[in-house]
Amino acid sequence: MDLSNINIEQYLRNNDVKPSYQRLKIFEYLVKHKNHPNVDTIYQELVSAIPTLSKTTVYNTLKLFLEKGIVQPILIEENEIRYDADVTVHGHFKCEICQEVYDIPLDLSDMKTEGLEKFIIKESHIYFKGICKRCNIANAQ
Amino acid sequence: MDLSNINIEQYLRNNDVKPSYQRLKIFEYLVKHKNHPNVDTIYQELVSAIPTLSKTTVYNTLKLFLEKGIVQPILIEENEIRYDADVTVHGHFKCEICQEVYDIPLDLSDMKTEGLEKFIIKESHIYFKGICKRCNIANAQ
DNA sequence: AATAAAATTGTAATCATTACAAAATAGTAT
DNA sequence: ATACTATTTTGTAATGATTACAATTTTATT
Ligand SMILES: [Mn+2]
Ligand SMILES: [Mn+2]
Ligand SMILES: [Zn+2]
Ligand SMILES: [Zn+2]
Description:
2 copies of one chain form a homodimer. By secondary structure, chain A is of the alpha+beta class. The first copy, chain A, has 5 helices and 5 strands; from the N terminus they run H-H-H-H-E-E-E-E-E-H. Chain A folds into 2 domains: 8-83, Arc Repressor Mutant, subunit A, CATH 1.10.10.10; 89-140, Dna Ligase, domain 1 (2-Layer Sandwich). Helix content of chain A is 35%, strand content 21%. The radius of gyration of chain A is 17 Å and the shape is globular. At the A-B interface, strand 4, strand 5 and helix 5 of A face strand 4, strand 5 and helix 5 of B. The structure holds manganese (II) ion (MN) (2 copies) and zinc ion (2 copies). Chain A binds a DNA duplex through residues 18, 20-23, 39-40, 52-57, 59-60, 79.
């Protein structure tokens, strides 16, 4: 899903989140950058524009967004939680060289899920690790 | 892959791990139980049999196993790392009721990985969250 | 404007993980 | 077998990310 053209204030309201300045800016950062940042990255990137910003607010806000279902945590590396404002089912690829996390369009519909009969699937997550196209080509030079 | 009938001592040696008593017991626990435990569970389950066991040793040992590629970390929940001695590609399902983590046989070969041309995939991970068969049936009563 | 409710902030507390050095164990040479 | 060396384990202290909490600020309501 492409959130880049939504009205963020309205989107937050529609999802039962009062759009304070900090919440707007944090969600806007996720939507604009699509870089699956962690808490610290969000804080560091915003604190210059919002000098009074507290890291606690970033934690609180992401927790709220998670509860309201408008962000999802991306778990690829141990001891690193990244966040994604795109909550539709899609895959991720993390490059071991440049550390970047790419989105991967996915069609899981025809996947054989042998052994999951009578299981209720509420969430599906898939991710890959390896070397991205850019780093692969750069290394080949 | 089924590790239940291997000679654990030999398996560790083959993978460049000296089979100390603690390492044997920790790996044996993973192989025998297949429950994808976290550090604390492993420690709690073994400390009665090995009263001198230190949690640091559990951390050290799992770190070594990871480096040697004979365990993989399972990341499903935020702030919880579980470990799996089965390092072949397979999926997992975590039940939100009983918290159990199930193995899911997977065939990712025919999955459409649009957008990954020229990417080198070294690891593939997939997991689901929801309600397991047992809890689903129990709830239906 | 006064009051109440909600959100933000800064600091302190917590807790999992890591660093580190001492003790114990295993391996090797004499 | 003994002395010596290397490796592993252990317990404690340090680290660092996250959470708890109360004070302050902001927003909403009367
Ligand atoms: Mn994404
Ligand atoms: Mn498994
Ligand atoms: Zn890269
Ligand atoms: Zn269950």
